[in-house]
Amino acid sequence: MWYDEDSDEQENTGPKNGQITEKNPNDEKKEKCKCKKGCSKRSCCCFKFGSGCNSSCGCGSSCRNMFNHLEYFFGDDNNKCAANPCFARWLVEHAKNTDGFKLIDRDELRQLIMKCPSFPDMSYDEDLEAWTKKWQTISENEKLAHTQKLFRMLLSDDTTMHYYSFCHNDLFQEDCYWHCIVCQECLKWREWHCGVCNKCMYFSFFFFNKKKLMIFDRIYQLCGFLLGTYGVSLPCEGCGGRSQMSGSF
Ligand SMILES: [Zn+2]
Ligand SMILES: [Zn+2]
Ligand SMILES: [Zn+2]
Ligand SMILES: [Zn+2]
Ligand SMILES: [Zn+2]
Ligand SMILES: [Zn+2]
Question: What range defines the domain where residue 62 resides?
Fold first, then answer.
């Protein structure tokens, strides 16, 4: 190979320079928690990941995990699913506790999603396209179940093509964006969480204004494409570490 990692590019700054320091906190999801009671805070690893508790958790009848009641959004005819990280964060802000779910108007939430900029351009997502077609001819008494189906597609942790981002009020492709549960921000796949600095490495100069993000991103993609560097993630500003996917610098 012509490329040699130990060659002259080693004079950079950070102490972790070149080492892989990526540690995705979203991968640390567990099957159960060990809480003795409560489960109403992020110290509970079920709550933290937007999941309800189950019989193998330590909490029992004292459990106050609001995500035990996600059937309000997802319906109970289906397999239990968790809230995706972006929805989980939104629920914590808007519901506060278990009873708070009932104060959230599901129809308003559906409208919020359907009014987001990308929703009309979703014809290439077969599931969403089929959902929208059915919505147009649906009878009044089927609307709730169909709304819950939309929420399962866009707000739960089961993987479909898109998810709804509350951070950016738009639909994002699941393999292009992710919501970091520590930094609580929807990020592009190139942006990664540094385990040493415990924060995400994102392009901060693009991020100073979320509304401009999309425009800058287009420019970035174009420049990156022209330079042949599109798809490369940058090293951590804090420690100089790099992600699994980053190439050579
Ligand atoms: Zn717990
Ligand atoms: Zn639990
Ligand atoms: Zn619990
Ligand atoms: Zn988000
Ligand atoms: Zn992060
Ligand atoms: Zn770092």
Answer: 26-218
